[in-house]
Amino acid sequence: MIFDHVEGASSIMDDIIKWGSTLEEHNLRLSEVLEATQESNLKLNKNKYVCGVQSLTFIGDVVSAEGMKPDPLKVRATKASKRPSVRKMFNDALSRAYESTETLHERSGEAEVDAYVDFVMHSIPVSDRKMDEIRRESGKDPDLQVLIETIVNEFPDTGCSSAVLEYWNIRDELSVVEGVILRNNRVVIPRSLRKKMLEKIHSGIWGVPKEVLSDDSPKFTSSEFRELAWNYDCKHTTSSPNSLQLNGLAEYHAVWLRHHCSCAECVSAATKQVLIEIDMLPLDIKVTDVIIAENGNDKVRIQWDDGHVGEFSSIFLRNSCYSELSLKQKKDATKPLLYKEETLLSVTYADCEADEQNVYRLLKYVNEHGVALIRDAPVKDDLLLEFLPKHIAPLVENSYGKIYDVMYMRDPTNLAYTRRKLQFHMDLVYYESVPGLLVHHCLKFDESLIGGENNFVDMFAVCEEFRETNPEEFKTLCTIPSPFSRDHFSRERPVHLLMKRPVIQLNHDEEIIGIYWNPSAAGVLEIAEDKVTDYYRAYQLFARAISNFHTKTEIRLKPGDILVFNNRRMVHNRKAFTAGNGDRHLKGCFIDISDYKSRLIHLSRKYGDMSTIKRVGNMDWL
Length: 622
Prior knowledge:
Elements: E1 9-12, E2 15-18, H1 23-39, E3 55-58, E4 61-64, E5 67-70, H2 72-80, H3 85-94, H4 101-105, H5 110-123, H6 128-140, H7 142-153, E6 174-177, E7 180-183, E8 186-187, H8 191-202, E9 211-215, H9 218-221, H10 223-231, E10 235-239, H11 244-247, H12 254-259, E11 287-292, E12 299-304, E13 309-313, H13 314-319, H14 324-334, E14 345-348, H15 349-354, H16 356-369, E15 371-375, H17 383-391, E16 404-406, E17 422-425, E18 437-445, E19 454-458, H18 459-469, H19 471-479, E20 482-488, E21 495-501, E22 504-506, E23 512-515, H20 532-547, E24 553-555, E25 562-566, E26 570-574, E27 584-591, H21 593-606
Parallel strand pairs: 9-10, 14-15
Antiparallel strand pairs: 1-2, 3-4, 4-5, 6-7, 7-8, 11-12, 12-13, 15-25, 16-27, 17-26, 18-25, 18-27, 19-24, 19-26, 20-21, 22-23
């Protein structure tokens, strides 16, 4: 439909309505409606145009801030008239089996009726097989046949047949679709099937799936199982007994095994690097022998037809299994924990210095929630240069240096060096490899200053909600490249950085694996003319989704605080702050996302934590 993409707009036949909760929202949606009509070459009737009112009449209803209610004039007119003939036209259309296609299409409004009929039929949660059974039994039921004829020809005002008398009070909710009677979008079950349906309801079997995938072993080919599947309308698909997709059994390709052989001939014992020359690997290689050790060393010995022999541990094979079930379990385990509440973990600097497990607790929390805080650190200018490489990973050097100051400057080279409000953003998105952890050490933040707090929003959570509420705009942000740039030639070290890529990055399973966002670093947009409106609509709605997100974490730093957050996942802003009589001075630096993740994995294994590392937004497809 022409206006499906416009939020707060709807059309029925030749009438259009749009609404908004504020004047700004109302005017924005009005502009979008007018753009859509212009693009579709529609002409509007200025005599029917009404704008900016608190209530109006639309398709027989009065629409206002209080909701919808019937138009009193229409109600009085309806009560004073006979049943409208359009009712018969509608039921005739739903009952096409009783009338030729040519006759139906001669009627006015057939396009609207056809669309509704298709919608009804595709919305009913009943399989085609079960619908055929209901249709067949309805044709055998004499009372339902009388009811069908009555619906098509309209219920009489008096003298209703006893066969349809029980349906009199709901007559306006009944229709017929291809021999099946519907009450709104629910199916009227023939009497011959009602006992069976009640038995299903009272049997308590609510977890029967729509389809079962299994092998063709006897328990799944038995008459009992076939009868169960038939009675509960469950589709049953079988495959061979050794199907890894259906059984979860692990199968390993001969080439895969040969490539992953870890013997001294294939992998360097000193460096753990692969020695196999991939261009020489025979793709038609076959396994000729498999021996499972019985001496308790948990090894599997494999020989290939090229004469090579290798051993694999069962732990390696189990952890490296690439069956469909195994891959799904691994991917599910790495899905981020989306923000559900405002949370912030804090550990003390002394605790991190005293016990490495506190560092691990900090890094794990950042992995799961995006942001954490270290309290009571020394107010020392170059503390981060010592503390971070010691406990986490080396610092990343970029055009701002290895460590930089965030403070007010009279001649700023960055908005961060002003007192202005900063929009929600990620840092350095114009780099090919955007820094992972961003660390701020607060040296000074005078209490006299008003403002200057930071807010954090989880972009994984924003994107998932945006995917649901704005699917077309979500797709636009996944496909149209956004330009990110930084030009500053007057600096001591001049920079010219430009990167174009979509805001949201997906893997082959449509999962979010990367996000890039910084409106203040927007470069010049260069896309096809017909994509410009779509891009800016998506860009603007996404910005609003971030700013208005329901869960934010606000932090006002104090001297001695060290703020650590995932710059590939969290966006942050800063409130404007007054000059007052004091200063706000932070030291900032970055840690590469891969170095951070490597350290986290190492500590996880070291302290026996079996939980899975969550996705960090570094474009990893797992």
